[in-house]
Amino acid sequence: MCFRSILVSSALFLGTNLSADQAKEEFVLPSSVLEIEGDLAYGEYLASDCQTCHRSDNKNEGIPGINGREITEIVYALHEYKNKYRKNEVMQMMAGGLGDEEIAALASYFASLQ
Amino acid sequence: MSINRRSFIQTAAAVTASLSAPMVMANGGKPRVVVIGGGAGGATAARYIAKDSKGAIDVTLVEPSRTYYTCFFSNLYLGGFRDLGSIAHSYGNLASEYGINVVHDWAVDIDRGGKTVSLAGGGTLYYDRLVLSPGIDFVDGAVEGWDLNAQNKMPHAYKAGSQTELLKAQLASMPAGGVFAMVAPPNPYRCPPGPYERISMIAHMLKKSNPTAKIIVADPKPKFSKMGLFQEGWANHYDGMIDWIGSEFGGGNVSVNPEAMTVSIDGEETKVDACNVIPAMKAGRICEMAGITDGNWAPVSAHDMSSKVDSNIHVLGDASAQGDMPKSGFSANSQAKVASMAIRGALTGSKVFPAKFSNTCWSLVDTNDGVKVGATYKATDEKIAKVDGFISKTGETADVRKATYEESLGWYAGITADMFG
Ligand SMILES: Cc1cc2nc3c(=O)[nH]c(=O)nc-3n(C[C@H](O)[C@H](O)[C@H](O)COP(=O)(O)OP(=O)(O)OC[C@H]3O[C@@H](n4cnc5c(N)ncnc54)[C@H](O)[C@@H]3O)c2cc1C
Fold first, then answer.
1. Residues of A in contact with B414 (CB under 8 A)
2. B192 and B119 together in one domain
3. Strand order across the B107-111 sheet
4. Considering only alpha carbons, which residue of chain B is nearest residue A62?
5. To the nearest whole angstrom, how far is the Cα of A55 from the nearest Cα of chain B?
6. Interchain CB contact of B408 with A (< 8 Å)
7. Nearest Cα residue to atom 35 of ligand 1
8. What tens digit of pLDDT does each residue of B197-216 get?
9. Which terminus of chain A faces fewer neighbouring Cβ atoms within 10 Å, N or C?
């Protein structure tokens, strides 16, 4: 479903061990995932769980506001957390339970907010 | 449309009372929801029902206190990381921004047949759906020698506010090298890591002001939430200060004497200078009065948090017996959203989606040393069932721990905005 290609980092050329941090992977989602149209009503319900931390007034007091971001940016971010490509255990867990449809719904809803 | 989406819409249709126009009530007016308790579950439910129904539902919130002090971060107040004002919240926004009828009173009776709530002040409220989120009360006689009359000498500080202030004052006036004891509660109770975060915060405070003081914890459990993480932190930051006595060592065989200020653990009596007794807990008493409890708690359906005894009543948060979720503010807030969606669906025909829940509990061990545990959950016919989870690891770097603490500040700001608008 998700394709990853490893962009070879300089560490590899130097012959040292490639740690997870040093590896620069490119995370690519297929267009079939990016093209799913999100259901706004479903997104609104699912988003309520996110808004415990990501404030609906978009203020950042330690956790960023995510209202009004681009749909693609949110879809990528959630798939990256889900696939543990991005760090943060809370987000990996929250995104881990979401299907493609749910991610699309959330992205449409947050993108629609100010 | 994919199979996934079709299947959730079908589930939705199945559990929604009506997909057409809003229900017209017997009284000809708007449907009415009464929420009892303006805490993590109740304030969230009132706000979400009012906000998302856009005026189609009349929402009344019954809460005796004009100021809600969050239990969450009350330990940080004990540790000196927050002041009391920063954990105090009022209900003004819920009334002015969301049109919620906020009634500062106690609910003293519920007539399930007539669907009414009686208030201590004499009024009666009518409901089509009732939400109960009254939090906890203490089990009578749970700790020998302790009852509510003793809470001034040996505070529980497990409902935040004056009790927390009192405990902090008592800790501050301990003599040099004095002894503080905590009597920890048996499972299940509000906030599984709460007593141990409290021990950490008290140790932090005493280390500064009274470094030769001693801390004793009498615990009826053999192990506790985030035990490895707390024990690592106590050894790193407060070495030799904390003596945790678990059930194997008689930690559950406890009695207290508030007059003499003594604590007896497994027959051995100790004179203490301050003592925090956290007794066994049960659902807020109004649940018992409504006749919806089984034992100490009120069992609910995981799909919509409705009482297993009366489907017109939804029980949220600490008071509910729901399955795998810990009794936390985060859980209560998450459950409130599921119940709000189901209530709106039943009363106005709005779409209903399958329930999803989540929880994360952050704890502070010392300055910039935050740890966390979290999980996601789904509704099954039997209970709220855990799907996936994580916990901080021992030996994490200082940067990771600091980021975890900073994240907890964001969470606190977020959840209180989510509750009170
Ligand atoms: C020390 C401590 C630390 C904690 N830390 C965390 C944390 O870091 N994270 C976290 O998620 N959770 C934490 N918790 C747990 C959290 O506070 C509770 O789980 C949460 O408040 C439960 O929400 P609730 O709605 O069930 O009850 P509450 O928030 O207690 O609200 C209940 C409300 O109902 C009102 N009420 C009761 N009876 C009646 C009645 N008859 N009529 C009208 N009103 C009534 C009460 O006045 C109260 O305001 C902590 C708890 C403690 C004690």
1. 51-55, 61, 63
2. no
3. B107-111, B116-119, B124-126
4. B410
5. 5
6. yes
7. B37
8. 999 999 999 999 999 999 99
9. C
**Whole-angstrom distance, CA of residue A43 vs CA of residue A108:** 7
Residue A7 phi/psi, 5-degree rounding, is: -85, 120
Residue B155 sits in the same domain as residue B274? yes
**A3-112 under CATH 1.10.760.10, yes or no:** yes
pLDDT at A13: 32
**Residue with CA nearest ligand 1 atom 39:** B134
Yes or no: say if B190 and B284 are a contact pair by the CB < 8 Å rule.
no
pLDDT recorded at residue B23: 57
Write down the ipTM of this complex.
0.87
Quote the percentage of chain B above a pLDDT of 70: 93
- Residue B145, pLDDT > 60, answer yes
- Residue ending a domain, choose from B244, B259, B279: B279
Q: What is the mean pLDDT of residues A22-32?
A: 79
pTM of the model: 0.92
CB atoms within 10 A of CB A93: 21
Domain that holds residue B205: 143-279
Instruction: Report the distance separating Cα B100 and Cα B120, nearest Å.
Output: 20
Contact indicator for B123, B107 with CB cutoff of 8 Å: no
Q: Is B75 in the pocket of ligand 1 (CB under 6 A)?
A: yes
